[in-house]
Write a structure and sequence with these properties.
mainly alpha; Growth Hormone, Chain: A; 2 domains; 76% helix; 462 residues; globular; transport; 22 helices
């Protein structure tokens, strides 16, 4: 049945989002790039003529991406608001080209800082534009499935860099990666602007054709009653928005807005303070410090593959199981896995003989990323448009995305410093505690949004 839907009804939505996610996968490469590369940059074999980088410089290499992400989220939110989501998507490739050029020609750590900042600009575009693009074009029956593709493609990039970063020459990776933004520009150029953006500009006929494209309807004579209803709802939704007064403070004080903003801030905080993004960034260093008997290079690839398995699990069942249950299972599992990783590190630090248990850190890390991938790392990116009032959906996504980048800066900057000062066990136990608190909040305060129609005004917004 799923393959039938994919081949007949939904395949253009999947194809369009796959094209968009070329830049997402490329961004995933930059997210994971420090994991295999920072140990190299800190070693005597560093490719930088200026010499090995320090712990503090390594923390800036990781966290500079988040500074760019904060700015990029706001910048691309402005671009898609005034110029449309297609233009905003295409422009995400510009900083991406610059970043790999800087790594290719750079001979000291400042070039890398600049590259990581540009990577953050692209990531800000991915965070602020891609979820809204998906919300615009996706059928509500598969919106969660399509939303899960974002993190899958990020982790495809992670697998590539975790494998290639340890075996390919330092200067070959940027040469390979400069191909991806070119392919992205070519393919996305052929996609129509979203129906929502076209209706906002008053281009009714083009909006209808755009929706027909994404619903795989080749001609007006093949339009179904379901299509007509969907398009009429979308027109009514856009008209209502256009006749509403401009956003003011009172819009943020309604119960629906307060709940939506709380959920948006909460899921983004959980996404980062669970430690998963920092762990992905410094996985190579964590494996080196954890006392595992595995080859860290092989363990990195294994961990990344299991991470994708978690993404695929979420992809397959998210629109049947629902957002809340997946988020709950994810937070619970990540908290327990990090507690185990911390316990192993603690026992090793105080001198216990853990011979025969060298595999445990790799398993705990793999479970952390697998269980994170079924909820914590992907659901925040598409639940925010579902919980925000329609009038505040765009600005709510921007606020949440900006806070995500700020939270990421804090965790990525502090993680390597904390691992030195309070050891791995202290660092991951803090993240485990965050997950424990999150479980309570999810149970009592997070609603289920599976199948919610995003093109219908709530009563409080009419």
């Amino acid at each position: 049945m799923f393959l039938e839907f994919l081949s007949r009804r939904y395949w253009k939505q999947f194809a369009a989002i796959a094209a968009v996610h070329i830049i997402t996968a490329s961004y995933g490469v930059t997210v994971g790039w420090p994991a295999p590369i920072i140990p190299l940059l800190r070693s005597p074999e560093t490719p930088l003529p200026s010499g090995p980088v320090t712990v503090d410089e390594a923390s800036w290499i990781g966290s500079t991406l988040c500074i760019g992400g904060t700015i990029g989220t706001i910048l691309f939110a402005i671009i898609h608001t005034y110029f449309g989501k297609k233009i905003a998507l295409l422009l995400t490739s510009v900083p991406h080209i610059i970043l790999w050029t800087l790594i290719l020609v750079g001979d000291n750590v400042w070039y890398i800082y600049g590259a990581r900042f540009c990577s953050g600009l692209t990531g800000g575009g991915v965070v602020s534009v891609v979820p809204l693009y998906i919300a615009d074009i996706a059928d509500k029956k598969i919106r969660g499935t399509l939303g899960s593709l974002t993190i899958i493609f990020i982790n495809i990039g992670l697998v590539f860099i975790y494998a290639a970063g340890n075996y390919l020459p330092y200067d070959l990776i940027p040469k390979i990666m400069l191909v991806s933004p070119v392919a992205f520009i070519v393919l996305v150029s052929f996609l129509p602007e979203t129906p929502y953006c076209l209706l906002k500009k008053g281009r009714l006929l083009e909006a209808e054709r755009s929706l027909m494209f994404y619903r795989n309807i080749s001609d007006q004579q093949y339009q179904t009653a379901e299509f007509t209803t969907e398009f009429d709802e979308l027109k009514s939704f856009v008209h209502t928005q256009s006749t509403q007064s401009r956003i003011c403070w009172a819009d943020f004080t309604t119960p629906e807005a307060k709940r939506g903003l709380f959920i948006g801030v909460f899921v983004m905080a959980l996404n980062q303070f669970s430690g998963i993004f920092a762990i992905l960034t410094y996985a190579g260093t964590i494996l080196q410090m954890s006392g595992t008997g595995f080859d860290p290079n092989v363990a990195l690839v294994l961990v990344a593959i299991l991470n994708i398995c978690g993404n695929l699990t979420s992809f397959a069942i998210i629109d049947r199981a629902g957002r809340k249950i997946m988020l709950l299972l994810s937070a619970t599992g990540v908290g327990l896995a990090l507690a185990v990783l911390g316990a192993h590190s603690y026992l090793l630090t105080i001198g216990y003989d853990l011979q025969g248990a060298e595999w445990l850190p790799v398993l705990a890390l793999a479970l952390t990323l697998f269980l994170g991938a079924i909820g914590i790392t992907n659901i925040p990116f598409f639940i925010v448009p579902e919980v925000m009032p329609p009038k505040l959906r765009s600005i709510g996504s921007t606020i949440s995305g900006t806070l995500l980048c700020m939270f990421a800066f804090v965790t990525v900057k502090l993680y390597p410093i904390m691992m030195v000062n309070i050891h791995i066990y202290g660092t991951v136990w803090i993240s485990s505690g965050v997950c424990a608190i999150a479980v309570v909040i999810i149970i009592f305060l997070i609603p289920e949004t599976k199948g919610k129609n995003l093109n219908v005004q709530s009563d409080s917004q009419k």
